[in-house]
Amino acid sequence: MNATAGAIATYNFAYLDEQTKRMIRRAILKGIAIPGYQVPFASREMPMPYGWGTGGVQVTASILGPDDTLKVIDQGADDTTNAISIRKFFQKTAGVATTTRTGDATVIQTRHRIPETPLKSGQVLVYQVPIPEPLRFLEPRETETRKMHALEEYGLMHVKLYEDIARNGHIATTYAYPVKVEGRYVMDPSPTPKFDNPKMHMSPALQLFGAGREKRIYAIPPFTRVVSLDFEDHPFTVQDFGRPCALCGAEHVYLDEVILDDAGGRMFICSDTDHCEERREAGHAGEMLAGEAAQ
Amino acid sequence: MSEAEHLAGGLADPVFDAQSAFRAVMAAMAEPGTVHAPGRLAGPPAPLSAVAATILTTLCDADTPVWLDPALAASEAVTAWIAFHAGSPVTANPVEAHFAFVTDPAAMPAFDGFGLGSHEYPDRSTTIVLQVAGFDGGEPLTLAGPGIETTRTFAPSPMPRNFTTQWAANQARFPRGVDLVLAGPDAVACLPRYTRLVPTED
């Protein structure tokens, strides 16, 4: 009824109908009021398959307005299939401005990464979540996991981490690493690498999580304590790649391995494409670029 | 009242006005004690305030039973307006209300008379919308907890009786409890259940 100019006339703004938006908006407010608790919601069929971010898309569609600037990333990259198709979806159905610059975005929908550029107050980070229940692979019954959350009974999660240590000598969980939110709920941060866990702690930005197939929404308000589970003698640590990005020379960022040939040649580059581009524009160069310049 | 009176005063542009109102409430809920303007407001019959009515049409519909305080429930114009613009069933039982609307916070029932949710489903609780006169004229409240980097002070008024005692009990119930949305004359602020009150330093 209210499609903006240029949007598809037969769809409502941002695709979802208003009653669905109200239902999701109520779930988002409850999620914010109970940080880390998974609020059930009546997830809708979206014009993309489950696993392509339908939960995140529904959350984004419910908060997005004509003044927003949207950024969509997939594993840190703005230019991969999932990111491009979701960005185009909202360009088409909401007509909103889009960007790849982390600093310019008001709403950032992400699949499995938190941008390297620190987020600001007022920004909203929307995560696409496949399995919202951190206890699901330890206890398949929803009735039981719900009771475990109610009773704050998280011993099983510590046993799981302990078994990691017993088998591997260290906590071998590297992604979807469980966190405790504000000392109460154990939460799955979605399959982000554990490298990103510390960025969730006391973030000035609002973090919203949407799981479409599993029909759950949860949230972390700004400036909330988010602590990765660990043991006194096996404290939580993040990955260290031991080398800078091959393109922009950034250190202490999350790197992707890129295979260069079939003779073992490879390089490690920033997973956050925007961060890498901005650094290169600012004149930083990693060993691959420096090598090219020398030739 | 004339028969068509309740047809007027809805959101002028339901899609975009509701979106900007929701973003104001979301920002206020995420950072307790901050004050946000919801944008263009609805024009409801008194004693329902414009901001409270905007929140009502933004968040309530046929799926959400609402509880109205005696002043609102007694107004036929208000109940007709809510029925037309939101279609929400009005409940006399505050425990089953998803939203409660209160014009006179000083005379409202205690928080524990509303829906508090269960330990398994703490989200099944009542969100109480209080109409307040402003955010700086009352007893200063110093807030701490998620959404607040250190502490934040604001002074909404009027507030419910024995507010600090009632709120401490509500906060101690976490994750169960009610959430408050304070509807001022032209802006909203929120007190979600996790927000702690700390003694104000003089």
UniProtKB/TrEMBL annotation, chain A:
Keywords: 4Fe-4S, Iron, Iron-sulfur, Lyase, Metal-binding, S-adenosyl-L-methionine. InterPro entries: PhnJ. It is an enzyme of class 4 (lyase). It catalyses: alpha-D-ribose 1-methylphosphonate 5-phosphate + AH2 + S-adenosyl-L-methionine = alpha-D-ribose 1,2-cyclic phosphate 5-phosphate + methane + 5'-deoxyadenosine + L-methionine + A + H(+). Its EC number is 4.7.1.1. GO terms for molecular function: 4 iron, 4 sulfur cluster binding; alpha-D-ribose 1-methylphosphonate 5-phosphate C-P-lyase activity; metal ion binding. Pfam families: PhnJ. GO terms for biological process: organic phosphonate catabolic process. Catalyzes the breakage of the C-P bond in alpha-D-ribose 1-methylphosphonate 5-phosphate (PRPn) forming alpha-D-ribose. Belongs to the PhnJ family. This is Alpha-D-ribose 1-methylphosphonate 5-phosphate C-P lyase. It comes from Zhengella mangrovi. The lineage of its organism: Bacteria, Pseudomonadati, Pseudomonadota, Alphaproteobacteria, Hyphomicrobiales.
TrEMBL record, chain B:
The keyword Lyase applies. InterPro entries: PhnH-like_sp, Phosphonate_metab_PhnH. Keywords: Lyase. One of its GO terms (molecular function) is lyase activity. The keyword Nucleotide-binding does not apply. It comes from the Bacteria. GO terms for biological process: organic phosphonate metabolic process. Gene3D superfamilies: Bacterial phosphonate metabolism protein PhnH. This is Phosphonate C-P lyase system protein PhnH.
